[in-house]
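tool_call: predict_structure(chain=1)
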Amino acid sequence: MVENAITKILVVDDEKDVRDLLYDVLSAEGFEVSTANDGTDAFELFQKDNFPIVITDIRMAKMDGITLLKKIKEVSPLTTVIIITAYPSIESVKEAIFAGAYDYIAKPFDVDAIKIVVKRAVERQYLIEEAKQKEFYKDLSIRDGLTGLFNYRYFKEILQREIEKSKRYGHPFSLIMLDIDDFKKFNDNFGHLEGDRILKKFSQLILDSVRKIDMVFRYGGEEIFILLPELPKSRAKKVAERLKTLVKENLPITVSAGISGFPEDGDDVETLIKRADLNMYEDKKVSKNH
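tool_result:
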C-alpha cells in the first residue's frame, strides 16, 4: 500500500454481503472503512466526515449511485469516487465516468482488482493533497500575515511582470501608494493591538473598494500599494481621492496618497515605486498645511 494519511473510505451498497466483503478487504489493507446501505444515508455521512475516497454501487434504492456521485462532486470536487457495477451495466460506467467518477469495480468481485483500483485512487488523493499543501505554503509565502494582503516581495515580482507586459503591448498602468497619517501617534494613544485591528480594517476596506483585476500589497508598516492594470495615471488620481474619502468616512484615520504611472513616471520597478513614494510625501505636506 502507498504510505499516506488518506485512510478513510466510505463504502455504499444496498447489499450487505457486498458491504461486508469490501469492509473486510479494505480494513485488512489498513483503511478506516465506514459503510452505508443507500445514497441518502451515504450523503449524510459524507457531509459529516468528508471522506477522500467513496466507493458506491450504481443501482440503489432512495438515491442511486450516479445521483450520489453528482451530489458529492458538487460539495467536494476533488473527492475520488469509485463506482461498483455488474458486467451488464457497462453503459452506466460511461455515464458515471462522465459525471466525474474516477474508476469502477466490476461484479463479481476480483479482490486483487479491488486492491489495484483503490491503490490508484489513494495515489491520486495523495497527489491532490500534496498539491494543496504546496499551494497553501506558496500562498503563505506571498501573503502578509497580519492583513492577508500580498507582501512586499511578491509586489516587486508582480510589478516587474506588469512592466514587461505593458512594454510588450503598449498599455498603461498605475500605482497608488497609501500611507496612514500619524500612525505612530495612533499606536501610542490606543495601543498596538488597536493599531493592528485598524490596519486589518483599512486593508479590507481597500480590497473591497478596487476592481477585481487590481492587486493590493502591504509594502511596509502602514503603507500599501495598489497596482491598477490598464489604468492611466489621470484616472488613478480619481481612484486615490475616492479611496482617501472612503477611509476618512469609515475609519478613525486618514491616509495620504502618491501615484505613479507607466510609462510617464518610469519603466522600471524602483523608479515607479520611488515616484509614488515622493508623490505620497507631497500629498502629506499639502494635507498638513490645510
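agent: The longest strand covers residues 173-180. Proceeding to next step.
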